[in-house]
Amino acid sequence: MIIKVRCKKCDAETRLSLADLSYNGLFRCWKCKQSHIFVVENDEIKYLKLLNDEKYGNQLELDF
Ligand SMILES: [Zn+2]
């Protein structure tokens, strides 16, 4: 199946092909390289969260 995941950071949409109806693991945005933790259950995204905590993210943005 194909599932669409929208990046929480840059809003880019990624299409992922999953072998099962349920999945949990990492997803990395093709555009901004932001890592997310995501959980799929029965063909639906149940959980999607940025992998880095906010402090770390802010530091990266300042460096950028
Ligand atoms: Zn992104």
Spatial separation of the terminal alpha carbons: 36 Å
Strand adjacency order, main sheet: 3-4-5
Q: Which ligands does the model contain, each kind named once? A: zinc ion
Tell me, briefly, the overall form.
globular
Which CATH architecture would you pick? Single Sheet
Summed up, the helix count is 1
Largest sheet: 3 strands, antiparallel
* Mean pLDDT across all amino acids: 84
Instruction: From the alpha carbons, calculate the radius of gyration and give it in angstroms.
Output: 13 Å
Estimate what percentage of residues fall within beta strands: over 45%
The CATH class designation is Mainly Beta
Helix content: 10-25%
Number of E strands: 5
Q: What string, H for helix and E for strand, traces the elements in order?
A: EEEEEH
- pLDDT < 50 runs, ≥5 residues: none
CATH topology (fold) name: Rubrerythrin, domain 2
User: By helix and strand content, what is the structural category?
Assistant: alpha+beta
Count of discrete structural domains: 1
Q: How does this model look, in words?
A:
The protein has one domain: Rubrerythrin, domain 2. 16% of the residues lie in helices and 47% in strands. A hairpin with a 6-residue loop joins strand 3 (23-28) and strand 4. The N and C termini lie far apart (36 Å). The radius of gyration is 13 Å and the shape is globular. It is built from 1 helix and 5 strands. The protein has 64 residues and is of the alpha+beta class. Zinc ion binds next to loops.
